[in-house]
Design goal:
Helix 6 crosses helix 12 (227-254), helix 10 (154-186) packs across helix 11 (210-223) and helix 19 runs antiparallel to helix 22. This protein is globular. A two-stranded antiparallel sheet has the order 1-2. The chain has helices at 2-15, 24-27, 36-44, 46-55, 60-64, 81-93, 97-109, 113-137, 144-151, 154-186, 210-223, 227-254, 269-280, 287-292, 300-329, 340-347, 353-385, 404-420, 423-450, 458-482, 490-509, 527-541, 545-576, 578-586; strands at 196-197, 207-208. Helices cover 69% and strands 1% of the residues. It has 599 residues and is mainly alpha-helical. GO terms for molecular function: amino acid transmembrane transporter activity. It is a multi-pass membrane protein. It is found in: Membrane. It holds the Pfam family AA_permease_2.
Length: 599
């Protein structure tokens, strides 16, 4: 009771606080960090606290209700499904086809790069179905982070949170550097002409890009003015972008030469296509930003599925068509990896068109940065509301209704990365993080449909766990087998494919669904989520060992932070709200401390 009373006094005091403040209590308000002695005691209790956090689950009421008080001021509901569709279009198209198509056509897929986009788009569309259902059930600014906290627990959510923040920083940095490349093309210079070469630094990190830093700061400054204004600007810019895409398609196919698709359509083999698909998956990542806007959507139950699925379907078709136009205009071995479309039009005799394309690419990437700044800040806000990172970054400005501190934090990180790192380094890191999170979201949806704490019988739980494990392990096995020395032998594909089918059919026929969706449900359950798990894990396997090494180092650093800080902050936060959240949790299956049954 004392903790509840203390929390009430703190909430009351917060109402009178100024937004612009900076103190230790704003960053580390939890009891575990009040003194070195308290922190030492918390470290000694790491084992029990870690078990508590792993086995506990949040709830819809906590994610979309109780935690909002941590922001002190609300995000404003002002968006419709049309806004969401344009936000999805604006964030994805600018950050995809203009950035990575040239690189992947040149070095990985060759003329088959449209197939890479089709494969990645199919996987992304499966993920968008999963996101659509979860966003209607849990309309929180946290997106995938909130979904995983409810269904898989704090540890899984934290690992996802770290990768979400990594994706946010790396994705924005990659766009910022591509912006510089296209600006150089617009003024008729080499793609690296506006960067500063520092030979003392390692390759991939020795071309400094101050222009990218300026662009990142400018778009983030606009994003903090408000979601409504940002959405309006993005919608207007998207109309211009659609016109430029129509021009690219018309001009590209007018100069289409089938001979450019030869002599081999697969110069790097099928492995090159899947490797390219894993990298260009980054170009679809903007769609998950739409899910983070659910808290600011007027009718999330209707608007989020419409906005997500309509934008993703259109974007996949656009990507395939535009990439085909590129490899038809210019032989893949001659494509400029940094500013592909501008240089291709110049090579086709339309030198003036390169300026139109470069301007369109700049517009698209600016829209991507603008919408990304919105979504990334909302991810960060929800993560901070749970105290996994300091709650200072959860504060929403009373005037703008936006999380200024969260936006500034992500922008600062992206600016530092953009200043040094090249696009190929950034793309591989971002893609593996994105694929990992999307696979976890699909697993979370299956857990949500087939397991309810306190209601699912032990026998049903064991059945579900067995078939889910079969789906995951067969998907991993297929990916590993394809990338092994036995890739040309068909028995492995038959074996792993049969295991995946057995696992998914087992869920469909033997495991009973424990929960029905309230508004929107993924069709063909459990086949679509299971396919999403398989495609995301398969594409992860197509990335190189260097991407896994970077991913492993980043994840290890995240886990060290979690053990030293995150687990103690979230433990204090969860237990300080036991009294105030218990009534809300009682009304919903699986509250904040509804434990998973360990079988």
């Amino acid at each position: 009771m004392a903790s509840a009373a203390e929390g009430g006094r703190e909430a009351a005091a917060a109402a009178g606080r100024r937004y612009w403040r900076w103190s230790k209590a704003d960053f580390f308000p939890e009891p575990s960090f009040r003194s070195w002695r308290a922190y030492g005691g918390a470290l000694l209790s790491t084992g029990p606290r870690l078990r508590d956090r792993i086995t506990s689950r949040s709830s819809e009421a906590v994610e979309a209700g109780t935690l909002l008080a941590q922001s002190e001021n609300p995000l404003r509901r002002c968006l419709t499904w049309v806004d969401l569709a344009f936000l999805g279009f604006g964030s994805v198209v600018g950050s995809g086809v203009f950035v990575l198509t040239g690189q992947e056509a040149r070095f990985d897929a060759g003329p088959a790069v449209p197939l890479a986009y089709a494969a990645a788009g199919f996987s992304a569309l499966l993920s968008s179905f999963c996101y659509a259902e979860l966003a209607t059930e849990i309309p929180s600014a946290g997106g995938s982070f909130s979904y995983l906290r409810v269904e898989l627990g704090d540890l899984a959510a934290f690992i996802a949170a770290g990768n979400i923040l990594l994706e946010a920083v790396v994705g924005a940095a990659g766009l910022g550097r591509s912006w510089t490349s296209y600006l150089a093309a617009l003024i008729g210079r080499d793609s690296d002409a506006l960067r500063i070469h520092v030979p003392e630094l390692a390759d991939g990190f020795n071309l400094l890009d101050p222009i990218a830093v300026v662009v990142l700061c400018a778009t983030s400054a606009l994003a903090v003015t408000g979601a409504r204004l940002t959405s309006t600007i993005n919608s207007a810019a998207s109309v211009v972008g659609i016109a430029i895409i129509a021009f690219v398609l018309g001009g590209g196919f007018a100069h289409f030469d089938p001979a450019n698709l030869g002599p081999s359509f697969f110069p790097f083999g099928a492995a090159g296509v899947f490797r390219a698909a894993a990298v260009v998956y980054w170009s679809y990542t903007g769609f998950d930003m739409v899910a983070t806007m659910a808290e600011e959507t007027k009718n999330p139950g209707r608007d989020v599925p419409l906005g997500l699925i309509s934008s993703m379907s259109a974007i996949t078709a656009v990507y395939c068509a535009m990439s085909l136009a590129l490899v038809g205009m210019q032989r893949y071995s001659e494509i400029d990896a940094n500013a592909a479309y501008s240089v291709a039009f110049a090579a086709a005799g339309m030198r003036w068109a390169r300026y139109v394309v470069a301007l369109g690419a700049l517009k698209g990437m600016t829209s991507g940065l603008l919408v990304g700044a919105l979504g990334q800040a909302r991810y960060t806000t929800q993560i901070a509301r749970t105290h996994m990172i300091p709650p200072y970054f959860a504060l929403v400005h009373p005037g703008t209704g936006t999380p200024i501190y969260a936006t500034a934090a992500v922008t600062l990180g992206a600016a530092c990365v953009a200043l040094f790192s090249s696009l190929d380094v950034l793309a591989s890191v971002s893609s593996i993080s994105t694929l990992f999170i999307f696979a976890l979201v699909a697993v979370a949806l299956l857990v949500r449909r087939y397991y309810v704490a306190g209601a699912t019988s032990p026998a049903q739980l064991r059945t579900f766990q067995a078939f889910l494990a079969l789906i995951v392990f067969s998907s991993i096995g297929m990916s590993v087998y394809y990338n092994s020395g036995y890739a040309r032998r068909w028995p492995g594909y038959v074996a792993f494919g049969a295991l995946w089918v057995a696992g998914t059919a087992g869920l469909a026929l033997r495991a009973k669904q424990q929960r029905a969706p309230k508004v929107y449900g993924v069709p063909l359950m459990p086949w679509l989520p299971a396919m999403s798990v398989a495609t995301n894990l398969f594409l992860m396997g197509s990335l190189g060992s260097l991407a896994y090494m970077r991913f492993g180092i980043c994840t290890a650093a995240m886990l060290v932070y979690y053990v030293l800080f995150g687990v103690h902050a979230t433990y204090d936060m969860a237990h300080s709200e036991d009294q105030t959240a218990s009534a809300a949790n009682a009304a919903i299956d699986g509250g904040e401390h509804g434990k998973i049954v360990l079988v």
